[in-house]
Design goal:
The structure is a single chain. By secondary structure, the chain is α/β, with parallel strands linked by helices. It has one domain: P-loop containing nucleotide triphosphate hydrolases (Rossmann fold), CATH 3.40.50. The chain is 19% helix and 30% strand. The longest helix is centred in the N-terminal third of the chain and has 11 residues. The chain is globular and about 40 Å long. The structure holds adenosine-5'-diphosphate (ADP) and magnesium ion. Magnesium ion (MG) binds next to helix 2.
Length: 148
């Protein structure tokens, strides 16, 4: 189990934490983004994409559900907020993407809680009482990082 916790006071800080995280994550990894609406899950993915070398826009794929970025390794960003049923996730081809070496970042993974590998990273954003722009961000992963 590895775990790190940060405090972010702005969207820029959240992107920065994610840019640093980009150095640890590998092709084929699944990154689950946990936390309520508006806490910065998409913002975190923007920083992750930047850290992987992406210079364009990163939009919330709420309606598209899935967006791919030609970074190295390539990044797939899913937002399952509007997933109709838990089983519908299997029609998205997410497993094929990770098998092909994509990093897969997922907003609202709770829409289909049984779909994710034990080895997934869990990035959890939490509001801080009385601080509108502050979030705690914890990043954890089961297992030994050295034997991926
Ligand atoms: N510390 C922070 N980290 C990330 N976003 C923040 C922070 N403080 C304020 N915000 C604002 O919160 C919103 C987060 O939006 P978004 O990333 O789309 O959230 P989510 O994807 O979790 O719904 C943005 O409007 C952003 O400007
Ligand atoms: Mg979002």
């Amino acid at each position: 189990m590895s775990e790190a916790a940060y405090t972010s006071n702005s969207p820029e800080e959240t992107r920065n934490i994610a840019r640093n995280f980009a150095r640890e994550v590998r092709g084929g990894d699944v990154v689950l983004l946990l936390g309520d609406l508006g806490l910065g899950k998409t913002c975190f993915v923007q920083g992750l994409a930047e850290g992987l070398g992406w210079v364009g826009a990163v939009l919330s794929p709420t309606f598209a559900i899935l967006q791919e970025y030609e970074t190295r390794p390539p990044l797939a960003h899913a937002d399952l907020y509007r997933l109709e049923t838990p089983g519908a996730v299997f029609g998205l081809g997410l497993e094929e993407l990770t098998e092909a070496g994509f990093i897969l970042a997922v907003e609202w993974p709770s829409r289909c809680p049984d779909a994710w590998p034990d080895s997934a990273w869990r990035v959890e954003l939490t509001a801080v009482a009385n601080h509108e722009n502050a979030r705690t961000i914890s990043i954890r992963r089961n297992g030994d990082k050295t034997c991926r």
